[in-house]
Amino acid sequence: MVEPIFDYQFRLILIGDSTVGKSSLLKYFTDGKFAELSDPTVGVDFFARLIEVKDGTRVKLQLWDTAGQERFRSITKSYYRNSVGALLVYDICNRASFEHIPLWMTEAKRHIEPHRPIFALVGCKLDLVSNGGHREVSKEEAKAFADQNGLHHIETSARKGTNVEEAFRSVTQEVYNRIQSGEYKVEDGWDGIKTGFTRPNGLDFNLIEAEPAKLSCC
Amino acid sequence: METSDSECFESADEEIYTEKENKKSKKVASSPPPKDDLSKEVEDITNLKITESNDEQPVDLNNEPHEPAKATKIKPSKIGVKTNKSDNRTNSHSTMIDNKHIDTINVTENLEDHKDTPNEEVNMWDEDEDWEPIETKPEPPPPVSTNKSWGWDLSAVINAATVGVTTVTSHVSQGLSTVLETGIGAPDPAELARQHTQETETHNADDDSTQSTTNLFGFGNLVSGVTQITKLVETTGNKVILGGLDTLESIGKKTMQVLQEGDPGFKKKRALLNIEGEKPVLSQILREAKEKAEFENRLLEEQHFARKANYESLFDDHQGLMHLEALEMLSRQCSIKLERLTESRFGSELVELQETMNQIVELCELIEDEDELEDTSEIKEKLDSAVSEMVINISYDKLLTTRKEAEHWLDNINLQICSELELHEQAIDTLAQLTALAVERYHKIGELLLIKEHRSTADEADSLVQLTMILITLTGNMATKFSNKLSEKLSSSAHKDHINTLITNVYFESANSSSYLKNAFQLLIPVLQVGAI
């Protein structure tokens, strides 16, 4: 279980009502698996995954999976601060969970200040809709809200794996773009963005891999 | 071509050094006589004369012992590497010298070759425009030589034969043994040249003495006996060989001279070759490449193991750091709450609050108590009873499973197969994982305590103290078990120091584990304090 080498670490937080599917989304993203049943999250849980952005930069995503239950609200608030991105998660078949999104967003903005995180609006349980379930939030409505607030919107299914990767990838790419443009910086005392492991002894692993092949031909 | 050349030279190089060590090799010039091809030998007699007279040419061998000695300083291996245009000549010469030496090993077969060599070289060098032919063209046999004719020569030979068949034989056998002793037996050109000089001297002495006998007995002596002729042929054969070798020696020597012509000590040529010398010899490249590859492999392996056995990164891999960090956040949040509260209180209220705070800190003091925890069910029982006082829904099953798996692994490993590094790696990983799981539990306890409706701070503190002590003992015991396994390897291993370092490291990380646990527990104190007010 050796941790792969990465260039950046981004901390993303998932927030939203309980049972919308935050943990399932993360489990699929990090494990590629879907659990039919899972215990409600206590406080916060952690997931991690390495992905590459478009220019090949390796980013380790540290994913904070918060409890959606009201009783943990006071606790989860304290975890917001060090996030560079927040996924606002709702259940496509649960109107209330979508209606709470503005509250979650305000809460997150307030706690992450002075930093300005990237938000993404993620609808979950898309598979239920195609499976005869009742859609309570139309795609258009969600899209309109997202556009209005400058968010990226995507509908996903953790059961089928639909758009799960894309949901995280779009946020990661956006954070990375803002680093490139200088809008985001690595700051001491803030763990939203960290630089990753430098390659040991400045050795480039690609070079090392190339060496033996070169040797065999001389 | 480059390859074979340089290899040739390398082997020649080695032999030069063995030769120098071996004083016996002085007689190396002689080689076994071919007993089979008599007619050819007779034919070769003329040739021998040619070469002998050739030897007596103006080059003063005695006066130049230093030059061949210098020649040995040159690293033939470097000469062997090629080659820009200007060096081609040098290169081919050197190659030829070397070939000649190799030939001396096979004198029996190569008699023909020896005869031919001078011509070969002349032809070759003639092709070279830069070549100054004066030096190397074999001089035509001077008339004096031919005048000596059979009469002198044969009687001289007979004389030599009667006196010295035995000496020749011993000479030859000596030569043979030297050849054997020196491996492939290609002698140093300088050495050969020196021997040649000595040999020429003795020949000359022989000739002088026999010259007089020739005058006395004249041609008639030939009739003295067929048996003598047989002997004669035999000895002539020897001489032919000697002569052939002499030819080779002189060729070698002359080549060296030509090479040094206008370039004493090969300074210019060496300077030229030095440019080439920067291109290292093939074998050198390969050796260096191999060493480099080995070094890098070792480095990678060490890094791999270092990374695999790095407690902090493993602790992080098991999400320990994140939970610790989240626990710190919780703790800080509670501390801020407490500070605000203290600021808002005055007088006796403040004193009371501070007393309560201090009492809780006192309740949380750990008693160092090294319990032996062996049985899994016993540990589970203790943990459950400790946790029960907190009245929260928390289970240590995952931690207990991890511990059990580690024990199972330890019980089933084959110490013959399992290396100390693997064992150490497993030890560190187990410690890191157990500690990460424990820290995660502290974090969860903190969260659950904060959302608990009816707090009972004293019970919670007592519960956490017990819990922490059990966990510290548990990780400590695990470290001891791994260390014991490592110690078992001590007796059978050659790297005792290395194993001892690993054992020390296991204990070190075990101490690290308990400080992580204590630290996590300390972080919960504000959580307890918040519950008390």
TrEMBL record, chain A:
One Gene Ontology molecular-function label: GTP binding
Cellular localisation: Cell membrane; Cytoplasmic vesicle membrane
Gene Ontology CC, one term: plasma membrane
InterPro entries tied to this protein: P-loop_NTPase (IPR027417), Rab39 (IPR041818), Rab_GTPases_membrane_traffic (IPR050209), Small_GTP-bd (IPR005225), Small_GTPase (IPR001806)
Gene3D superfamilies found in the cross-reference section: P-loop containing nucleotide triphosphate hydrolases
A single BP term in Gene Ontology: autophagy
Keyword Lipid biosynthesis annotated: no
Keywords for the protein's UniProt record, in alphabetical order: Autophagy, Cell membrane, Cytoplasmic vesicle, GTP-binding, Lipoprotein, Membrane, Methylation, Nucleotide-binding, Prenylation
Keyword DNA-binding: no
PROSITE patterns, per the entry: RAB, RAS, RHO
Major subcellular location class: membrane
Membrane topology: Lipid-anchor
The family this protein is said to belong to: Belongs to the small GTPase superfamily. Rab family.
Protein name listed in UniProt: Ras-related protein Rab-39B
Lineage per the UniProt record: Eukaryota, Metazoa, Ecdysozoa, Arthropoda, Hexapoda
Automatic annotation (TrEMBL), chain B:
Acidic residues bias: start-end ranges: 1-16
UniProt keyword annotation of Phosphoprotein present: yes
Keywords: Phosphoprotein
InterPro entries: DUF719
Region annotation Disordered: where it falls in the sequence: 1-95
Pfam families on file: DUF719
Biased composition (Basic and acidic residues): 34-43
The keyword Ligase is annotated on this UniProt entry: no
Family (UniProt): Belongs to the FAM114 family.
The protein's name in its UniProt record: Protein FAM114A2
Originating organism: Pyrocoelia pectoralis
